Amino acid sequence: MAFHVESPTALTCTGGPAFTSHLYRIPHRATMEARDTGAALTNAYRGLAAGGCSLQPVQEHFPGSEARSFLLQHKSNTWDEPDTINPEASSASLCLPSSSLSTTSFHRVVITGDSAADVTWVRPAELQDIAAKLMGAMRARQERMAASLQRFPRTATRFLRPPGDKVDGCGTEDGLPNGYPAFATVDMTAVEAADAATPSPVTPAALTLPSRVAMVRGVAVLYADEKAQEDGQAWALPCDATIGLSSHLSDLGVLLGLVQDGPLKTFCQRRLKLLAAKFQVHQMTNELAEMIQLKVDGCRDFENVVKVDTHIHAAACMTARELLQMMRSAREEGVPVSRGPDGRELTLAELFAQLHLRSDSIDLDNLDVHVDRDTFQRFDRFNDKYNPLGSSELRNVFLKTNNHMSGKYFAMLVKNVGRRLEASRYQYAEPRMSVYGRSRGDWEKLAGWFEQHQVYSPHLRWVIQVPRIYHIFRTRSIIPSFGAMLENIFLPLFEVTLNPDSNPTLHNFLQHVTGFDSVSDESLAEGLFLPDSPAPEEWTSAENPPYSYYVYYMFANVAVLNQLRRLCNMNTFVFRPHCGEAGSVAHLADSFLTSDNISHGINLSKSPVLQYLYYLCQIPIAMSPISNNSLFLEYSRNPFLDFYHKGLTVSLSSDDPLQFHFTQEALVEEYATAAHFWKLSTCDLCEIASNSVRQSGLSHMEKREFLGDKYLEEGPEGNDATKSNVAPIRVAFRHETLCQELELLTKARPSSPP
Prior knowledge:
Largest sheet: 5 strands, antiparallel
Number of helices: 29
Structural class: alpha/beta
Strand content: 5-15%
Helix content: 40-55%
Shape: globular
Number of strands: 22
Distance between the termini: 47 Å
Radius of gyration: 28 Å
């Protein structure tokens, strides 16, 4: 019995006797309209699955057309005893390279003869140009990820690499993704032992490290000694970590041109629709098999697979009730928490009286930290929700690290969150802490708070966020230029890297830091980053630099810092900014060239070209639908499900539990809401959780423990279902589909790279 999908409008059942299912009857030579095709496939599959049928593609030629078909063939085995296939023998019929075809047996969804010209309505002459543009953009990202020691997927690398080319020592395939803090010395004995056994770069004995560092036009430059600095002789890193400004702006201009390219937009839009359709057919034909596979082979469920909250702000990582309880405890202590205008120390009760607030009658409603409908499209009102009872003084007392109490209450709140995550066993978080760049002492104060209060938890990894508020500091004459802000942010890190003994507290704190973030309201109007824009030391006006300006100079300095820290056998960092929550889609182009992963990314739905590039490069995206629902986009319109179906690497995160969530398990609340609203299966949830672990800054040893020893391998080989609870069928489908898209571009591209 063969089901031939001969056209978008009809499904024909040919051959064999009439087949009866308890759900649907398919008569001999029956033809159904397109609206019934999905139900027919689903019901036929359900009826045949019990008898051990498998779906295999076949190809038959009809006069004047090429049929794209599926063949349902009866197998002697049953679902709980899947047979294997020969990749070499099957690759031709599946139009896949044999190296891309796994040995996992499942119903493959393949369009035979997919040349992209007829499937996506692109002329063959245009297809070569489209492939050259897309792969050129991917190479631009690959070059930057290698220079900054951030991640670039092995699958894409394999397809981008010319035949016979070898990866040099600066690449991202030297056994571990360089962006991972795989070389960090985390304060855990088991982790230290595992990471010590992992091959890592060691400074050659003959290599003398530089002794001086200075900012030159906004980017850190290393010098061997003082004389070399006076002579302007920069110390060369073994791998070129600099992506010049002119080169960056040129590539950015090309990428923004691709975003507006008509034929390219058409091609990407149709490929993305095809990806979504393939997943829907995959679900119809393999959902039961995936469920059985997990029940038979798996030993976990969603509750006991590791989930990482990859986007959460430390100042809002607690619940409103936890903050309220802390305020009540502080009131009973009766110790000084602040100073009044006259310099006199004030207890919390006295501070309440000074603010004309009643401390004995506060409740969750009066606390007023939860968002409501008034915050939609009003980021300014959302920021006010960080002020308990509407008071910035109380925010300073309870949610700041540098105050009269040396951040005591804030540390207690964060440590409570850490203990709660440890008790849950399977939840981790990566809180964001702010470094503003007001002075070079910002880092020392933050590291001192971390050490003084022992704010360490094996379930917490730290990300440093840099708010884009230069204009506020400049207006108040706190800093003279944007260049000074960059110096305050990065020079202390270079100095402690070159000489850890100069600041042991900061050196220890950096071992717990995994990356950098850039945060602010993306919806604000901004200027353009042009070749004639002032250099950072010359940017002395009170105007805030555009998003592109911030992102480039942060990326450029992280790249140099990572190369230096790797030479010193220290952990490296990734750049993972807020991006695509609001504002221009150009922000997503900036992050495509510079960022390891991003947070939010909902504006990708507005640009099919960038969305397709993010898919091809498998750039992780930490999405927060509940947060978006309160600020910029209603939950029902959130593109998370669409991105997930297409195969983008998405994870769920809480963003700000203090403002958006009602339970102590904010991350589980995110998963539960998504599961109910979008009807996600257990396999779906576990796949999203697995994405969060891969995206996170957890160490190599921890990821091996949570995902399997071979998690770095491509496809099903890198998936251990007993740990991730993701069906091998699902992983094989994702990998083979990605390989099909990359193979399509590889075959269509010109013989010489653009």
